[in-house]
Design goal:
Shape: globular
Distance between the termini: 75 Å
CATH topology of the largest domain: Aldehyde Dehydrogenase, Chain A, domain 1
CATH architecture of the largest domain: 3-Layer(aba) Sandwich
CATH class of the largest domain: Alpha Beta
Radius of gyration: 25 Å
CATH superfamily of the largest domain: Aldehyde Dehydrogenase, Chain A, domain 1
Bound molecules: nicotinamide-adenine-dinucleotide
Number of strands: 18
Helix content: 40-55%
Strand order of the largest sheet: 10-13-14-9-8-15-16
Length: about 475
């Protein structure tokens, strides 16, 4: 049976309703209710309940938006939200505690600590490729830290957007958590208002718009962007497992994953066996006729589908290449040695095409990566621990996985975020809690033993003594 999608227009929030929503959230925050531990835990539990009880509706919405199968949606989105909720509930008491640090002799007797306090009202702007995860996972962090939040899901995944709006209104504290649906006009209106933090997930062009708008209010931002994530395959690797893991991480969600391997770097002599192993895995996973696989998704919109198809012009397609614009289908496709100047290698692909770049020597992968913008993720498949260390210490990337795809995303103890052009800031687990908290510096001094050394009138004797102490 062919996978089909059902595009629909987002039901946008009235522009006139946006400012009152923001004011209401700010008022709630000033009441202090969201700072209380029990409120935070109750909302976290409700987020989990909301996802679990509505899973069939969520699967259906994602099927309509992205033609994605239920198991992929569960693994990549619902499961991720539930993991974040459970991890936060388990650790929240500890995270909220004052964090003691030592106090130097000049400030003795005294105590020093950092007191995590919520920032206020957080604006969460999500992207369409994982439409639930990319707003609920930041929400878990924002709520854990005791904030109010306004969620703006992507208009491109309109079915999931309207379901999120419905579920949030039914399950969560609507005085503290609200949704604004819409596209550019509504987001532009949102950005005219002052928030206490903005987390944006999406492309870098809009990332700059968000950062400029935030600068007007000196609002801190977390930018979860994308870029071209390299996948370096060394010939010492386990070929079979490597091929499985590359195919899993590249073609999940039809290649529309911010941390999907964007291209492979491999030594010339190892390219043929690698390509052959990848082809075999694609066929094993999705069958000989991928268009009829129930496990393979669709491109989110015709515009994105045409954008990706254009990348194939004048390329050496060694596998796949079939597409059907009306069904927003693009076959898993391998391109051998595209020119570095071609749009395929200049832009983030964000679709099911995998370029294989061959090198004379795998060591050349390091300068190849370093000559480009810092990627969101970097993958390395190798059994050579010296080469592993060389890659880890000589390249920069938001996140690295050695010998797998984006499994780091499954660990809430690890920060999720980019570096340089691939983003700024990070979240998940405690890092997310800290991201939406201010670690307030607190020092408490005692009244007894008030050393007069620092007070005027200053003398040479005092100065000499002070130099010894500091
Ligand atoms: P998108 O089109 O859904 O846009 C993201 C958000 O920006 C939406 O909510 C949209 O309404 C808003 N927006 C769009 N144009 C705007 C404008 N002119 N002014 C204000 N707001 C505007 O998503 P996209 O940009 O196509 O997302 C794809 C990109 O996101 C890729 O680069 C991908 O790598 C990246 N991404 C990153 C992560 C991450 O966690 N780092 C996750 C998913 C996607």
């Amino acid at each position: 049976m062919q996978t089909t999608t059902q595009s629909t227009e987002v039901s946008a929030t009235l522009i006139a309703d946006i400012a009152p929503k923001i004011h209401a959230l700010k008022k709630t925050f000033s009441n202090g209710n969201t700072k209380v531990f029990s409120w935070r835990v109750a909302q976290l539990e409700q987020i989990k309940k909301m996802v679990v009880e509505n899973q069939d509706d969520i699967f259906a919405a994602m099927q309509k938006d992205l033609g994605r199968c239920d198991m992929e949606s569960w693994t990549a989105e619902l499961g991720g939200v539930i993991t974040e909720v459970e991890h936060s509930i388990k650790n929240l008491k500890k995270w909220m505690k004052p964090r003691k640090v030592s106090t130097p002799i000049v400030a003795q007797p005294g105590k020093s600590y950092m007191l995590p306090e919520p920032l206020g009202t957080i604006l969460i702007i999500g992207a369409w490729n994982y439409p639930l995860l990319l707003v609920l996972s930041p929400l878990v962090a924002a709520v854990s830290a005791g904030n109010c939040a306004l969620i703006k899901p992507s208009e491109l995944s309109a079915n999931t957007s309207s379901l999120i709006a419905k579920m949030v209104s039914e399950y969560l504290d609507n005085d503290a958590i609200k949704v604004v649906e819409g596209a550019v006009e509504e987001t532009t209106e949102l950005l005219k208002h002052q928030f206490d933090h903005i987390i944006y997930t999406g492309g870098d062009v809009v990332g700059k718009i968000v950062m400029r708008a935030a600068a007007e209010f000196l609002t801190p931002v977390t930018l979860e962007l994308g870029g071209k994530s390299p996948c370096i395959v060394d010939s010492s690797t386990d070929l079979e497992v490597t091929a499985s893991r590359i195919v899993w991480s590249k073609w999940m969600n039809a290649g529309q994953t911010c941390v999907a391997p964007d291209y492979v770097l491999v030594e010339k002599s190892f390219a043929a066996p690698l390509i052959s192993a990848i082809k075999n895995k694609i066929t094993e996973f999705y069958g000989a006729d991928v268009a009829n696989s129930k496990d393979y998704g669709r491109i989110v919109s015709e515009r994105h589908c045409s954008r990706i198809i254009k990348y194939l012009a004048d390329q050496n397609v060694v596998f796949g290449g079939n597409h059907n614009l009306s069904n927003k289908y693009i076959e898993p496709t391998l391109v051998l040695d595209p020119s570095a100047d071609s749009p395929l290698m200049q832009e983030e692909i964000f679709g099911p095409i995998l370029p294989i770049i061959t090198l004379d020597n795998i060591g050349q992968a390091i300068p190849y990566v370093n000559d480009r913008e810092k990627p969101l993720a970097l993958y390395l498949f190798t059994k050579d621990s010296r080469f592993e260390q060389q890659v880890l210490t000589s390249t920069s990337a938001g996140m690295v996985c050695v010998n797998d795809g984006f499994m780091f995303a499954a660990n809430p103890n690890l920060p999720f975020g980019g570096v340089g052009n691939s983003g700024t800031g990070a979240y998940h687990g405690k890092i997310g809690f800290d991201n939406f908290s201010h670690l307030k510096t607190v020092m408490k001094r005692s009244f007894w033993f008030d050393v007069p050394l620092r007070y005027p009138p200053f003398t040479d004797k005092k100065f000499k003594l002070l130099k010894k102490l500091i």
